[in-house]
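sorry for the late reply, my laptop died twice this morning and i had to redo everyting from scratch. anyway the thing you sent over, i finally got around to it. pasting the sequence first so we're on the same page, its 372 residues, then the predicted structure underneath. double check i copied it right bc i was rushing
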Amino acid sequence: MSAATSHLSLPHFIKLALVENGYLNVADLEGATPTDLAAELAISLPQAEDVLRQAASLSSVPSRPSSRPPSPSRAQTAADLLHAVPGPRFSTLSGAIDGLLAHYSPLHVAPQPLNLKGKGRALGGAVVPGMVLEISGPPGSGKSAVALSTALSGAVGGFEALIIDTEGAMVAQRIKAAAGAFLDSLPDSGGRSVDEILERIHVMRVATQVQMVAVLHTLGGWLESHPAVKLVVIDTLSYHFRQPSLELTPRKRIMELIKLSVGKAATVRGCAVLATSQMATKLLTAENKRATFETGDRAVLMPSLGDLWTTERTVRVALFRGRAGDDLRYAHASTTSTPGNSHRSDPPWASFDIDTAGLPCDMPPAPMGDNA
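ok and here's the structure:
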């Protein structure tokens, strides 16, 4: 079997151009000339010659059996698809939130088991590669807890995660304590250790706005050099961009940079992206237009970055606390394209709690016939 062109030692944009033009395997390049290839891929002649030189060298090496799945462009039987190894799935550790997110998952996800407070956890998972989530809410609503638990669930499942920490909330001691509590809550830890979990979680500390912009510019290259990473957590995305003094033009450029970086991480690198965001008070008129203190009719809490960086497929989850006397937390999910999850009859919200270890969990359902 011919080797994939992704095995060639080439810049990422050339690999993408090869795939986009149908050159999935080295054998597809046989008979191509440097001039034609350069014109087709929009690259220089020396770069095209290098591509063909590497392809010829790789095709001369006997191929080894590969455990990679067949190319998506090649037809597969239904039996192959049924027995294919499932991709990574990440859980928030709350079955209620996972069930909520399952409504927006591109894959069919079975009903999620509830992880009741003080009980053994059953891992489900509704967050899959390619999804982009924004978790927003006021302080104390559980944003960082949901983000950390999602990363831990992936690490326990054998996948790696990257946490970009802007506020300093993801300290090593907190991650270690949460990993230990998570393993202790599993009915069967499978011999996993806390150190093994921590080895699969990469942490970047981002202290300034300049550093955050630099991280966004280089995120694609970092993920390319760490192919085992399948989840990117940004806690908190809005932290360095919430200054009221930030002018409109630079703000729009930054939002476009975020959209581009997050989009590439999800689509090109095949990662799930979870970004937490702070809330800000927005003044609106009766027609839902921006207003000032003098012209505003109402004030609402909204994600502080707005919707300039999101796409129609971004799943926006708002976390909030209950009213006085209600100790539960609640999550509401929607997308721009399907507000309120219109294709489902279920309400787009869920209730959850945070246990003593700082991890999301579920509360037992109310007894039948309880009208309280």
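Residues 248-267 form the longest helix (20 residues).
thats about all i looked at so far, will dig more tmrw
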